[in-house]
Design brief:
Blueprint lengths: L10 H26 L1 H12 L4 H4 L28 H16 L7 E5 L3 H6 L7 E2 L2 E2 L1 E2 L2 E2 L2 H29 L2 H15 L1 E19 L5 E16 L4 E3 L12 E8 L1 H6 L8 H8 L4 E7 L4 E7 L5 E11 H6 L10 E9 L2 E7 L9 E5 L1 E3 L2 E5 L1 H4 L1 H22 L2 E4 L3 E5 L6 E4 L10 E4 L5 H19 L16 H41 L9 E5 L1 H18 L6 H6 L2 H11 L8 H15 L5 H64 L4 H28 L27
Antiparallel strand pairs: 1-22, 2-3, 4-5, 6-7, 6-15, 8-9, 9-12, 10-11, 12-13, 13-14, 16-17, 18-21, 19-20
Length: about 725
């Protein structure tokens, strides 16, 4: 936009006209974000994260007006308890993602040298290098074109490592990982996290330098260093036409708040317009907001008695002539350039060119769950909102059912009146001719359905795990019976699938574009020439950090086979332990010299170990012995089982024969009864009498044998004496 200066037009009038033209873009961005519904979604997500619902909001006080908001729910008989599952699930997700993407002992990025095809081809060329007809020698060896190429590549690699260390130091100084954790928190809770950078901050370093006289003197050095910071999504208004890619935005607005004293300090600072700041300080603070009317949204500037001013920062394209009106020197630039303009109370107080010559906007957006054609994503509270409602409803119904099932419901008719209700027992008095109190008084209890409601709660918690792909076991919660190692690994792998996609999204939306701008800043402003070169940013969130986390789990399983002599010869166990502790972020290892000394001592104590073939033969022999022992045990088990089976078969046969004998006995008794005109009961009585007589005779015989006496006269006599067994009359003699 070019605003030609009219004859007699004051400079402030041109500035105001230009500011009005630029601010029209701000109004457009504010209205678009308000109309998209994302602000209402953020308010609901924040309330869900804090565990607030309609009943909870009624008890909140509006800070601006100091009045109590009316409650929407007028009923007081229902339970209002709430078990918030959204907050712990969000915090668990933030921690799990940060452990993978933002480690404390490693970085999730690196630099790579841009491949040069000519240099790659030269690395294969064995042609000798000649200087003025003489071969070039180095260390007694003739130099080839391949040697020169390898030297150039090694030099480029050293310069790249120096640039990587420089950027890493700059990120450490500005607390980059801490700002990224804030961005991650916004993304999980609101759906979108925003980081801004690099900006430039002035640092004052204190350095003690030694003079010529040997005395150290304190010297304060002023340095300008890049920095990054997290930006609240509530304060960012992007170009409505950027779609779902913020890098396609033509401009971005950011809102901040500044106190009058801080604004006063900007007067006299290079780049700020002193006359515009003075005009702002003579005005009341103005707040800009979007309000909805019956027909459409409109932008209103509300003048209030606030303590701070709204400061709006515009990053986008402007023409050189527009910037000249705002006092910005664009040098030899022509046409449109990328610039930054700062407004307070809708007055421009500063205009500068973009920090980077590439014109990239200094904002990066990370979306937890992407939304089509929108830079604003969806967070976990929105995903878990329905499960939270089911959980809350079931929990409140359980509380209501607990109250109803433990309280007696009294039904009273005519014939009773209450006399006293102040003591430990209520006293009732019968009136009239009431003979049975149960005709006028009854107590009933509702059934308890706690088990059914508990099943609903457990099902809702399972849905929470399914929707987030992060099981409760990751938070240390044991749900159900103990699971096997394979089941736990399966859950870990399934959760890593979900996290892997978001780690890759972080690499694409934050790591690569943000650190590329740091590389550009160093190429443009850093005075160290030995670090500059043609490099690309290499995000390593998925390829290194997530794989490192998975490798730690594999090392733990592999350590179980450390006693195997064959694996001991081919695996460096010390290196495996180092990698495991590094992945677990535990710094407890000794120095390399101490570790090597300890390993050497262990080797000396073990003595000469047999060769690998001998060890293999020993292992095979032990395996054969174990196989033979197992075979013998199996044969013995089969023999014992067969003997038990045969014994069972013989017992079954004996029981069968016994049953047949009993049947034959009963049949014989029936036949005798029929022949002797005797009843079955008489036969049984005779048998019992005979059995009693025989038992008495046996007892007498045993007593005589113990006392060494002659056999007394028999009590029981057989009809026929067995031949060769006893003398007549001595049938029971031993």
């Amino acid at each position: 936009m070019i605003l030609p200066q009219q004859q007699g037009e004051e400079p402030n009038e041109r500035v105001d006209a230009l500011a009005s033209a630029i601010l029209s873009r701000r109004d457009e961005a504010i209205k678009h974000r308000a109309a998209s519904g994302v602000e209402r979604r953020w308010r609901e997500d924040e309330a869900a994260f804090d565990g607030l619902d309609s009943s909870g909001k009624g008890a909140m006080i509006d800070y601006a007006t100091g009045k109590l908001s009316p409650s929407r729910d007028k009923s007081t008989s229902r339970s209002k308890v709430l078990m918030n599952i959204i907050r712990p699930k969000c915090e668990q997700t933030e921690g799990r993602f940060a452990d993978i993407q933002l480690p404390v002992d490693d970085k999730n990025w690196g630099l790579k040298i841009t491949p040069v095809p000519e240099l790659v081809m030269q690395a294969k060329d064995k042609t000798p290098v000649v200087n003025q007809g003489q071969p070039v020698m180095k260390e007694g060896k003739q130099v080839t074109m391949a040697d020169l190429a390898h030297h150039d590549m090694a030099t480029a690699h050293e310069r790249m490592k120096a640039m990587e260390d420089e950027i890493d130091d700059q990120l450490t100084e500005c607390g980059f990982n801490g700002e990224c954790r804030k961005v991650l928190k916004d993304a999980v809770r609101l759906g979108t996290g925003i980081i801004k950078g690099p900006g430039v901050i002035k640092n004052l370093r204190k350095i003690w330098k030694r003079g010529n006289d040997g005395v150290h003197a304190l010297e304060i050095v002023e340095e300008h260093a890049p920095y990054s910071k997290r930006v609240d999504p509530w304060n960012v208004f992007p170009d409505p036409e950027c779609g779902d890619d913020i890098r396609k935005a033509g401009y971005i607005w950011e809102r901040e708040y500044i106190l009058p004293r801080d604004l006063r300090r900007l007067m006299g600072v290079t780049g700020y317009l002193n006359d515009q700041i003075a005009r702002v300080l003579n005005e009341d603070p103005v707040r800009t907001t979007a309000t909805a009317s019956a027909e459409r949204l409109k932008i209103e500037s509300i003048v209030g008695e606030h303590q701070s001013y709204e400061m709006w920062t515009y990053h986008g394209d402007l023409t050189v002539d527009d910037l000249a009106v705002l006092g910005c020197d664009c040098g030899e630039a022509k046409g449109g350039v990328s610039a930054c303009v700062v407004f307070v109370n809708d007055r421009p107080i500063k205009a500068v060119l973009n920090l980077l010559d590439t014109g990239d906007l200094p904002y990066d957006f990370f979306q937890w769950t992407q939304v089509t054609n929108s830079v604003w994503g969806i967070g976990l509270p929105r995903i878990l909102m329905w499960s939270q409602r089911v959980l809350t409803a079931a929990w409140r119904m359980m509380m209501d059912n607990g109250r109803n099932s433990t309280r007696g419901h009294v039904v009273k008719g005519d014939g009773l009146r209450m006399v006293d209700n102040t003591g430990p027992h209520t006293v009732w008095e019968a009136t009239g001719d009431l003979t049975d109190v149960r005709q006028a008084f009854g107590v009933f209890f509702f059934p308890s359905i706690q088990t059914e409601l508990q099943n609903i709660i457990e099902l809702a918690l399972r849905f929470v795990d399914l929707e987030t792909a992060l099981p409760m076991a990751f938070a240390g919660e044991q749900v159900g019976p103990a699971e096997t190692l394979g089941a736990v690994e399966l859950k870990v792998d399934s959760s890593n699938v979900s996290l892997r996609s978001r780690v890759k999204l972080w690499d694409d939306q934050i790591t690569r574009p943000h650190l590329t701008r740091y590389y550009t800043w160093n190429m443009q402003y850093n005075d160290k020439d030995d670090i500059k070169g043609d490099y690309n940013v290499d995000p390593r969130g998925v390829s290194v950090l997530l794989a490192k986390d998975k490798a730690a789990q594999s090392i733990v399983q592999l350590l179980q086979f450390r006693a195997d002599p064959l694996l001991g010869e081919i695996i460096d166990w010390a290196k495996a332990v180092k990698q495991l502790l590094a992945a677990q972020q535990v710094d407890i290892l000794k120095s390399d010299e101490e570790i090597e000394a300890a390993l050497q001592k262990i080797r000396e104590g073990q003595g000469q170990q047999p060769a690998v073939p001998v060890q293999a033969a020993q292992i095979r022999a032990q395996t054969d012995i174990q196989k033979e022992q197992m075979r013998q045990q199996m044969e013995e088990s089969k023999f014992i089982a067969q003997r038990q089976t045969d014994a069972q078969d013989r017992e079954l046969d004996r029981q069968h024969e016994l049953q047949l004998a009993l049947i034959a006995r009963e049949t014989k008794m029936l036949e005798l009864a029929a022949k002797g005109d005797m009843t079955l009961e008489q036969i049984k009585a005779e048998l019992a009498k005979t059995s009693l007589t025989l038992n008495m005779q046996r007892e007498l015989s045993e007593m005589n044998a113990m006392r060494g006496r002659e056999q007394r006269r028999q009590v029981a006599r057989d009809a026929v004496e067995p031949v060769g067994r006893a003398k007549p009359g001595r049938a029971f003699e031993e």
